[in-house]
Structures are given as structure tokens and as C-alpha cells.
Protein 1
Amino acid sequence: MPGRLLITGLSGTLAPHLARTAASAGWEVLGWDRRRIPTDDAVAVAAHLQASRPDAIAHLALGPTAWASGLAEYAARQDLPLLFTSTAMVFHHQPDGPHHPGDERTAQDDYGRFKIVAEDAIRAACPTARIARIGWQIDEVAQGNNMLATLDHWQREQGRIAASRCWIPACSFMPETAMALLGLLQDEAVAGRVVHLDSNAESALSFDHLVAALARRFDRQGWRIEVTEDYRHDQRLLDPQPGRIAALASRLAQKP
């Protein structure tokens, strides 16, 4: 199946992992330069897609809903696989989880609501689109929305890391997420489906235990972890077909 794979968001956190994984699997990776092709210009978007002629699209970037719709419409017309990464944040902590693909999306924050609108727009334009909901991503070096980098920042800025024992976060290591995303893109059986990718779905590690495990694994001896009960949420993303992504407990047990 490998051909030309358009990946949006290559200047971000997770997309570069997907690009490396796809390139290793034989894909020719195409990016999207927003300085040359404005995402709010439907004519420019359509022209760029016609010129680049991707064989598949993975939309990981944040951007206008109209851009997402344009990518989806093109994928539908050309009968191409389209993958969109959404988020566990489409679910509020009330009602509590764990959350399933068909559950009502209850987000109350702007980011979660934005992703709900994008999910709906993409599915309306391309009924065969794959929607992958993911949690907080973990990586040793990546910046941006990376749990490890955020924990380092909290320790530097606050002198401690407040970690709730009442929160079971949806989360995964980025390389595993990238591998799972590429698998979804290439799997015709998941066309048109919402899939949950969460390494913590089975392991069910509370945030305080997860932070302690990350401190051991990545030699963060200077972290001062303060266990709290400030946030209560079983945020896990359960899927009817588990096993698409490695379990978090086994991943944490591996050497860096």
C-alpha cells in the first residue's frame, strides 16, 4: 500500500514520529507548508492537493475546520484513506469514564469542543475517514504537548509536581501511537470508524503512580511528587478491539 502520504502538523509533536514511522515502512512523506498554502484558503487547499496527489492523508495539525473538511472532501472524491487524530478531551470528567467510542461527547472546554466539531465535519465530508482519539503523549525528547516535558516544567516552575491519585489519564508513548496510527491508516477494516488508542486503558495507572514510574524510568531524581486528590477522572479510552497499542505498564518496564 505505501505511496505518497500527506501528513499535516510536521512542525508539531506527534506528526514527526508518524513521519519517521511511515518513511521506514516505505511511504513517501509529504508535508504542508502553511506559509505557502494558507489553510483558510479553500482554493489554495484544493489546488495544492491536486498538485501533490497524495495516496493517503493523515491530518494531525490544528487548524480551521474548513481545512479539515477540504482534506476530507478530497479524500472522499479520490477514494483515499484519511486519518484524523482527535483527543480524549472530547469527554468531560462528568460523567466519568472509562470512555468508549460511541459514548456521548461531553467536552466543556474550547479544545475538546473544537475537536468535536472537527470530527463531525470530517465524517460528514468523508464517511470512510478513520477518527483516532488519543490521550496525553509521552516522549523522552519531544517538546510541545509532551507529558515528560510538562512534568519537567512543573518541577522547574513550581518546585513540585502535583499528581492526583484520583486521575487515571489516557496516555501513550509517541512511538507506539505513531505505529498504531499508521496501522489504522492502512487497515481497510477500520474505515469509517472511531478508534480509541490508549496505552493506559488496560494498565489503569493513576497519575501519581505514572509520574513516579516516569521519574524512575527517566532518572528524574529531582522531581518532588506531591500526591493530591484534586482531579477525579477515569479518562481511559477503551476500544472494543484492544491490542492496537502496547500496554503502558509493560512499556514503562522496558529500559530507555
Protein 2
Amino acid sequence: MSDVMITKAKRATQYIFLVCGLALSSWAPLVPLAKDRLQVNEAELGLLLLLLGGGALVTMPLSGFFISRAGTRKVILASVLLTAFLLPCLLVIANVYLMGIAVFAFGCGIGTIDVAMNSHGVQVQNAYKKPIMSSLHGLFSVGGLLGSIGLGFLIKAGLDPLFAAVAISAVLIALLAFQFRNLLDYTSEKEITRKFSHINEDEAVTSRLQWLNVSVLLLGVMCFIAFLSEGAVLDWSAILLRDHKNVSAEFSGMGYAAFSVAMAVMRLAGDSLISKLNSKTVVVGGSLIAAAGIVILVFSPWIAGFLAGFILLGIGAANIVPVFFSEGGRIKGLSPAVTIPVISTMGYAGQLAGPALLGFIAHHFSLNLAFEIIALLFVIVAVLYTFRK
């Protein structure tokens, strides 16, 4: 493969990460509209939201099967088109059962994009021979900010919500069409797999049955912890600030905003950081910084301390998961089509389980203790990564 092809594939992959973040976050402003239209209570709405995560979780392990047979480019095409088609549907379906099916299918599309784009990203990174995964995840974060703000802005500006959703879907399809031909094709991916995973085509078939690899499972466990922590901060940070730090309700979201901005900035700068340091320094140091941020957040009596804690948490946690995906794409004897779905599934399971586990701990003990346990989990990640082979 030529350097020009690899550079184009890198840029195309950046757009796909942006597309995934944009698609997922565009659902957030639609949730209140769906609740009103379907006339469901909070518990029923919670089940609908759970179906989105369930759809992603079900599809992620299956994505490797499709990737290994068709390549990530075709899987990305199908899943983005499915997601773009379903997004406006989430605004018009009035039957709660049909809505459940649509939300589940939307989650399937998002989960498949997630696995395919990460698998494609590690292939491009291997061929590019420089770290790129952190900036890719940074663009996912940028897409998340644009989606949640953009769709809401269009609706606030007076555009009919359905037309606003159609406009976002059109942007998703346009970005895909603009860069689709620059994504790696199936043949190029097989060539990179043979070169960097040290397996031939026959061994690749067998290796799909060998995902119970110690290195894969260890990365999956650490990814589970990292995603669990991120999911818990997403769902519980505002409650912590409002109910335990006496921050007014209208400002209770500032903690997660500070965390998100810090994480996005650090991920965009993460490739350069990893190149100058190394993966171990980034993961171990980042985990300890994140843990320190939580300690400051829990014990500080001042608003400046709360914000500093969330910022340190975002800085520390930002590049941990991208490193795990990079490591998963370089395990000898295993194709990324095997390793990335496993790591993604375990990570996403942590993101779904995190809020529930923290809620259980907060109910029986305290929310402060729940956040202290997150700090402990980050320390565990640092220890596991330090001593991994």
C-alpha cells in the first residue's frame, strides 16, 4: 500500500469516528420528545433507553463475524445507512412497542459502527506506523458535542424536529459518501493483518475461535473498568454536585462538561503524547491522575476543587481506552476482527453496568464512597497494566 492511500484512509477513518459520535449524541435531544409523544413514565422510558444499549451489546460480538467476511468498509457502510435511516424514525413512531424495536435497531447500528471503526482504525494505525487512535476517539467526542448541541440548536431555531433529524441523517450520509472510497478495502485489510498479526488467511479462520486469549481478556477487563468509570461519571456527576456538594441544579452539569472538554482536548493531543512517552506511561500515569482527580473531587469543599477534579479525571482517562484498542490490534496471531469486538463488548458492558453499580453502592452506603471506588478501580487499571506481559 502506498503512503498516499494510507494517509487518505486515516482521514476517512477520522470522518467515520465523527459520524458515530454525531449519530449517537443526536439521540439525546430526542429523548424528551419521545417521552412526550409515547406518554410513558420514567421507568418505561428507562427500559427504552436500556434497549439502545442492549442492541449495541448484542451486535458488538457479531460484528467481528461480518468484518472477517466482508471487511470493515462494507460493515461501516451498512451500519451508518441503517443508523441514518432510523434516526428520523425515532421522532415519528407513536407505538411504544415499535419504538422499542426501532431503538434496539438503532443501538445495533451504533454498536456495529463502533466495532467496525475501531477495527478499521487499528488497521490504519498499524499501516501508518504512528499512533492515531487517541485523535480518532477525540473526533468521536467532538461529534458527540456537535450532535447534542447541533440538533437542539436546529429545533430551537424553529426547524421542525423531524426535518432537523432528517438534516442530521443527511449529514451522516454525506460524510460517509465523501470518504467511503478512501476507507481500506477488504484485500488491503487482509494484507495488513498478515503483516502485523503474523497470521495467514487459513490461520485467521482458526483464530476467530481463540478469542479466549489472556492478553485479549486482560485488555477487555481493563476496558470494562475504564468504560464503567466513564459511564458512572456521565450519569452521576450532576447528582453528586447537586445533592452532596450543594451546587445549584442549573449548574450541576458543569462537572461533566469540564470532564468532557478535558477528555476531548487530551484525546486530540493524545497521539503526540503517546509518541513522546509510551503506552505504559500514558495508561499508568493517566489512571493515577484520574484517581487523584476523583479524590480531589470527593474531598474538596470548594467549587474550584470540584472542577479541578473533573478536569484531572478527563485528562487522566482520555487516552486509556484508545491505547487498549491499539494494543488489541497488535496481538500476535489474532486478527483485529477477533480482538476488537471482544474488547468493545466488554468495555460497553462496563459502561452499561457502571451507573447501576454506583446506584446500588450509593443507596446502601453513599455516593461519595461510590466515587472513591471508581478511584480505586483506576488504581487497579494502573497495577494491571504495569504487570501485564
Protein 3
Amino acid sequence: MTLALPRPHRDDVRIAVGGLLGGVPLWLFGIHPRVPADPLVQWAAPWAPLVPLAVTAACEPLRRTRPRIGLLVGTLALTLDTVTLGSVVTLVLYTDLVYAAVLYGTPSSARRIPWITGLLTVLGGVVPAALWRDPQALLIGVGVGVVAFAPAATGWVVRNHRDAAEAARLRAEQTALLAEMDRAQAVTVERARMARELHDMVANHLSAIAIHSTAALSLDDPQTSRDALSVIRENSVAGLAEMRRLIGILRESSGDLEPAATPTLDGLATLVEGARANGLDVRLTAGHGRVPAPVELAAYRIVQESLTNALKHAAPGPVRVALRQADGTLRIEVTSSYRPGDTPRAPGSGSGLTGMRERATLLGGGFAAGPEAGRWTVRATLPLAETETETETAARGDSP
């Protein structure tokens, strides 16, 4: 089993080739940092500087993939270079290996190498100067600092900037992701709101149209058919007006239309009159004062949907609508006759109860609906206090 090394970066290969192409001509022309008369290098053959040059150049392809190995082998090659005539290119390549080991190495290596090279720089200047008692020996420490500590410190600075840029990029991506999630959530909430508005505004009129058109088709009585067609026309016109209002709400953001009026509890009397025109025996009892706009809209829609359900599902009998303000809440109760097993007079999707419950929940209130003592009862409790929930609901656009 063989261990495959990662493929070196093309720029690292170019650095290695460039180092050889620069070092060999300097050797051919006899350009070296040390002179042959130096006792430390008298034993070395003339071609000896080429060995550390070739080894250091061979370490360059490892500067990204195996920076620690490259630095270790390069350090051995540099040590060998010090007992030969030497090559300036070998020193330059070694500084790049130190820089790359800090920049591309592990976090632990990036922390240790600057400290180690800094310590060697200090020792390289202080120890020889103390032993030889010659201030010029401090130049040894300067040389170590230039060859080792300076590239290590540069790599540390560049790595910190790179890591900071990467962290900023990740934060920007997370911010964009959160913004997209918020946008998707806002779209979902807005769609649910518009679905409730569309259902509450149009279902009442369409249910009346379906019921009276069935009567007009099933009864062979010209007057009854005429009355039914009149009711159908009235509900068609009213439904068309509600649809236009909804379209106006959708176009408000572009400034095409003026904001449409929001339904209020003052319109309950008109709503009840319309339900009576559709054949319901409705009685309204209202005892309330001034209420916040979100609560007012929710209460109007709950009464409207309850009357629509009574028109479609209730057995013949009176429908009672009661609104009462007490203990900081607006309490709504709508009751109608109920006979289990009756067939609805108009089709329904069952989303009306869901919409009423959502409206009450958004305001922090409660909702319940079901048979009770032989009558179908709808109860909703809406808090009247200007709570944070209501403010946020209004800000999301739950009221037109």
C-alpha cells in the first residue's frame, strides 16, 4: 500500500524551478556569500553549494501540502549550506519555506514557529556576543532574524488577516442565510394572512350565491327565482368589491392605490343585515368600547366567518352574535342551530375554523368551536391591551 502525496500547486513548482534557474547561474559565475579562504568551508568541494540548493528547491512543492516536512528538510539543507560556499538563492528559498509553514501549516505550528525563530534570533545575537565579547557578534542574531523570524512573523500576520477575512465571509453568509430565512418566513406569514383575508371576504358571498342559485334552480316559482337572483346579484357585486379591495391591498406597496379602509366593528350591523338578506335569522348584541385596530379586524373577521358557516351548515333557527368587553378582553360568541348529520347547503374546505383560530392566536387570545347543548357555538377571547404581540402583528401587515 502506497501513500499518495497531494498534488503540488503549480505556483510552488514554478518557485522551485525559478530557484534552480537563479541559483545555478550564480554558482557558475562564482557568486557566493562566503569566500574560499573561510576556514569553515575549506573542506567543501566547489560543487557542494548545489546540494542544499537542490534540496531546498525540492522542498518548495511541499510548501502548501506538507509545510512542516518542507521546513524540516529545508532547515537541514540550510545547515549544510553554512559549511559550503553557500548560495543566496538557498537562503531566499528557505525564508519562503518558513513563511509557508506559518501560513499554510497547522494552527499549532503557526503559533510555535514565530516564538521559536524569535528565541533563536535573540540567542543568536546575545550568546555569541557574550562568548566572544565582540559587539559585531550581534550581527549573527540579525542574520537569523532576517532569515527566520521576519518571514515567520510575516506569515503570522498574513494568516491572521486571512482567517479574519474568512470569518467575515462566513458571518456574511450566515447573515445572508438568516435574511433569506426571515424573508421566506415573512412570505409564508403574508400568504397565510392573504389566504385568511381572501377566505373571509369572499366565502360569505360565494356561499350565499351557491345557496340561492340552488333554490332558484330547484323551485318552479318565478317570484322565488327573481328574489334568489336579486340576492345572487347583490352578493356578486359585494364579492367583487371585496376582491377589488384585496387587490388594492396587494398593490399598496407599489403606491398604485391609496390604502383601503379596514373593516371595523362599526360595520357589524351592515354585516348582519347582509346575513339576514341571505336568509339567516341573526340577532346582534354588542357591548364594547374602543378596541385596538388588530383586535377590531380579527373580531370582525371571526363574526363574518361564523355567519358564513351558519349560512352553509346551520339548521333552521336563530343565530345569536354577542360581543362583550370585560377584564381587558373582547369576548365573542356566535351560536346557531345544530343538527348532527345535516348535509351542508354549500361546499366548504374547513379552512374557516383554522383561519379564526389563527387570528385569535396571533393576538394572544383563545378560540373554541363545537356543538354545545344542541347548538353550534363559536367562542373567541381577544386581549385588548396593546401588547408586543399585537404591535408585531400589525407591523407584519395583518391589518390592511
Protein 4
Amino acid sequence: MPRQKAATAHAAYHHGALRDALTEATEAILAERGLEGFTLREAARRVDVSPAAPLHHFGSAAGLLTEVAILGFEALTQYLHEGAQAGGNDPAARLRAQGLGYVRFALAYPARFQLMFRKDRLIDDARLLAAGQAAFAELENAIRDYTGFPAGQPLDASTQALLLGAWSTVHGFAHLALDGKFDVPGGPRADPQVLEATLRRILEHGWP
């Protein structure tokens, strides 16, 4: 009977719907239990399919996690792009707005964000590499505009250091926020508006 039930549930999904359902279930598990609490069996149970169904679509647990990471980088790229647009015609404002977008994404999708940089749990995948490069290109383009560095030329050491410094600032801030390092000891979580105001000041000091 359990096998028949799983087969019936599997038949209710078309290919794309089952993939989406499994990635959504994975994100829910990561949010509730963290990466160490994730299993393929639990993802399958939550969408009422056989434990073999995720393997059929993703090949392995790492394959399913990689799919979630790809979605994360794609969403991050969109947040960075929207941040650049919000900055208007001022290169400094665009760069700072991208920094705000980076942290907003991390706070909105903490499970995705923390997974995206766990190479030990992901597979080597061309789509993952491309998605990560697309997100990084958004930030690099903002740095090029900010410094006036010509498009199409490899960054020099100074501009590359500025790029890595900008990324490190917002990446580190996001991780500290998610880890509760800005919370009042024994008190509530830090207010998102307060966090954003603090980040704005940091970005204004670093990239006036």
C-alpha cells in the first residue's frame, strides 16, 4: 500500500511540478533543521513521493541541494540588479544600493544564502557556476562604474581589491545578522530596519 500511494502521488505531478515541489520542500527543511538535518527521504516524504523520486530528478542529495543553490544565485542576481536600478545615475549610490540588496536577499532567504557557499555539499555543475558568475558580474559592473574602470579590461590589483572588499563587507554583515550577532543579548532579534540603517552608514563610509 505505501508503494501504491507513492506511485499515485508521483503520477499527480508533471515533471516540472515535482522538481519545484522537491526544491520547495528542501528549502523548508533547511529553514527548519539546517543543512545537517536535510535528507532526501524527508524531502520525498513532504511531497508524498517515493524516496527514489528525488534521485530520479536530481541524482543525489547534493544534486537537489545544488538546484536550490542555483535558484539562490539567480534570485541574488535579481536583487543586485534591482539595487543597481534603485541607485539611479550615481555610481556610488548604485553600488551602495547593491550592498543593501545583497543583505536583503540573505535575510529574506537565509536557507538559500547559507547553502549557496557550501561547496562541500554541492556538486560541480555548469549551471551553478554560471549562476554564481552572473551574480558576481553584477557587483563587478557596479565597481567598474564606481571607479571608472574600462569595460572589457581585466581588473587591476587595486580595483580587484576594492571589489573583494565590497563583497566581503556585505557578505560578512549578512552572516553576522543571520547568526544573531547584532541582537541584544537575552533580548529580541535585531530589527531589520535598524540593521539596514546600520548597513547604510557602513556603506556610506566605505563607498562615499
